[in-house]
Specification:
The chain is an alpha/beta fold. About 45% of the residues lie in helices and about 20% in strands. It contains 11 helices and 10 strands.
Length: about 325
Amino acid sequence: MEQYGEGCAGAIARRKVLSGLLLASIIPAAAMAQEPKFPTEVVRMVVPYAAGGATDIVARAVVDKLGERWGKAVVVDNKPGAGTTLAAAQVARAPGDGHLLYMTTSAHTISGLLYKKLSYDPLKDFAALTLVAKVPLVLVVRPDMKVKTLDDFTRYVRENGDKVSFASPGNGTAQHLTGEMFNVTMNTKMVHVPYKGDAPAITDLMGGSVDAMFATLTVVLPHIASGKLKAIALANGTRIEKVPDIPTFAEAGMKNFEAATSFGVLAPSSLSQPLRERISKDIRAVVDQPDLRKKLVDLGGEVVSSTPAEFDAFMQTEYRKWADIVKRSGAVIN
């Protein structure tokens, strides 16, 4: 009887071990079955500016790598207009399945401060995925303007009052608000001229239709090198290795004047948390590839590659920063 009992107990123990192993193999399989397949169709990256601008350049560099990683087509969808709010509204209304993403800039948070009747909330209606990069702004002027330094430029603007204009890629952009910040700081009256993207703004600046621009360094680098635009000062804490001859505003005598265009990826707020984490991880993986990092650095950028939580915190900080500038400058949509 004792031997029989030991054999029975051993068999029961073996059955328990086998059951445990079987259960362990089933749970991951079930979890995998519940995870939605992604992507199942073409993924579109909406860009709120015309093709050829800084945001478009960064977006295309990222989507090329994502397409390779996902084995599906990832394309850029340029939707300029209304200070990025047309594109943002489209994304906010889209299904949160990950197939519509948004390459955003600082203008996204600023728009909520300048436009009073938006159909969306720039913070609550979007899921932050990752901050890709930041690129400092640089003050550039038309090639025939007889100024070389920041002092020269400031003197020129004061002498000519509201006859001096500055371009931006749109209302509510960091470039727009930086120009307004310059007006407040230096007691000048430059007139803002908004465009639908960097490319048309820079074309008119080179042609002399407008006088100046606080431009994203990325898009004006070749024009500075060719002499088609004159660089006056860089709105950054330090000089940039790519353009070591351009002084910072601080070096030129204007302290605490820093501004940058940030590039990050958002999705509709209804995106599930698992998919949010996965897409963020994939974007960060491609951004961290040496060739893409080099490309962004060569464009004058600083690669960031943040987590969703870090990007969300950054957007909150940006909102507070630009809210202060809007209040001080009295900036309005024109």
